[in-house]
Amino acid sequence: MPTLPWVEPTVDKAIPSTSAQTEPSPPADTASVEALWDAYRASNPAVPATPPPAWHFCDNRPDAAECLALVLAGRKRATASSAAFFALQNEPLPAPGDHSVVTDFDGTAECIIRTTRVTVLPMDQVTTEMAATEGEGDGSLEYWRAVHWAYYARELAGTGVPVSRGLEVVFEEFEVVWPAPRHE
Predict the structure, then answer these.
(1) Among 96, 83, 109, which Cα is nearest to 169's?
(2) With 84 labelled, which of 108, 151, 167, 184 sits at a CA distance of 20 to 30 A?
């Protein structure tokens, strides 16, 4: 899989996500998470009764909404978190077969995804194919690097973990297994 020569990303005002500000979000809406999980379980009785973790993409409302829309449209089929995030939160890394309930920024359950593959690698080893699979922006590796560099800088601010080209990234590929009903 091709990678491009490393060029230190810079914050670019033309890429909205790189200049976003972190904003607090409410916890997941337990009732909507349980309702969505129960609907999925009705067709998949082998899954556990307890819902899996529920979370939203990104650290701000506009980016979270955009990523959720990309997932629901089938364009975004992966996400990349820093390994440091999992370590700092004392959370296990995702594994193939894991389920997650994806919410909107306000915590309302929107879909259920199942992890299909997890690759842990340095940030500078993310490939053009991986960036395209993540499906954000123009799908390019340059866009991926700029947006994720800025995101990791916000996420890891004050933790003592520097953002660098060697930062370990947890690249999680997934499939949507249960869309939320649409009320239009």
Answers:
(1) 83
(2) 108
> In this structure, are strands 99-103 and 109-122 parallel, antiparallel, or unpaired?
antiparallel
Distance CA 181, CA 173 (A): 23
Edge-to-edge strands, sheet with 109-122: 54-55, 99-103, 109-122, 168-179, 78-82
Question: Which strand (E) or helix (H) includes residue 102?
Answer: strand 99-103
Name the CATH code of domain 16-179 (choices 3.40.47.10, 3.10.400.10, 3.30.420.10, 1.10.10.350). Answer: 3.10.400.10
Q: What are 95's two structure tokens?
A: 């594994």
Instruction: Look up the pTM and report it.
Output: 0.87
pLDDT tens per residue, range 61-113: 999 999 999 999 999 999 999 999 999 999 999 999 999 999 999 999 999 99
Task: Round the CA-based radius of gyration of the chain to a whole number and report it.
Answer: 16
